[in-house]
Amino acid sequence: MRINRIALDTNILVYAEGVNDPHRCEKAREIIAKISEFEVVIPAQVLGELYRVLTQKAGKKPKQVREILLSWADAFTIADSTWDCFSLAFELVETHSFGIWDALILGVASENGCRILLSEDMHSGLTWRGTTILNPFDSKSEAVLQSYIGE
Asked: Using CA atoms, how far apart are residues 145 and 116, in angstroms rounded to an integer?
């Protein structure tokens, strides 16, 4: 059995937690449910950003958010931001006009062997160092995503 590692960006987890657009919340949950726990990688940066969104925008209490983050960490692999990942991020900022924090997330995904990074707000369709960014809410990305996660 081939394992295709898939990294998740912050916005995917935000929707999975029920924040914002109900249609996207449902779709994010469906996608995550289809991916094996052994395939999912969550960059640690993403959990920090999720903490900020859930406390500041969704109005949840820090203790509640801590429990939410721990449940994500219990369910999936959390990948740290190493110096090598930061070096890759600097390259992405220079060559592809990424913001540093998005670049770091893609760098972490690449360093952890992810073939896909699911993100609503990065450069969908870009493949960099073997990792392809896909917007799971974009119909153009749906066929590629389905080939990785199946039905």
From this structure: 8
CA triple 81-85-88, angle to 5 deg: 150
Please report, for residues 19, 42, 48, 67, the alpha-carbon distance to residue 60 in angstroms, rounded to integers and kept in the order given: 11, 21, 14, 11
Sign of the four-CA dihedral 120, 126, 129, 132? positive
Residue 53 belongs to a domain:
yes
Q: Tell me the whole-structure pTM to 2 decimals.
A: 0.93
Q: Which residue has the tokens 């369709």?
A: 125
Q: What is the CATH number of the domain that holds 53?
A: 3.40.50.1010
| Number of domains observed in the structure of the chain | 1
The backbone region for 124, taken as left when phi is positive above 0, alpha when psi lies in -120 to 50, beta otherwise, is beta
Write out pLDDT tens, residues 114-126.
999 999 988 899 9
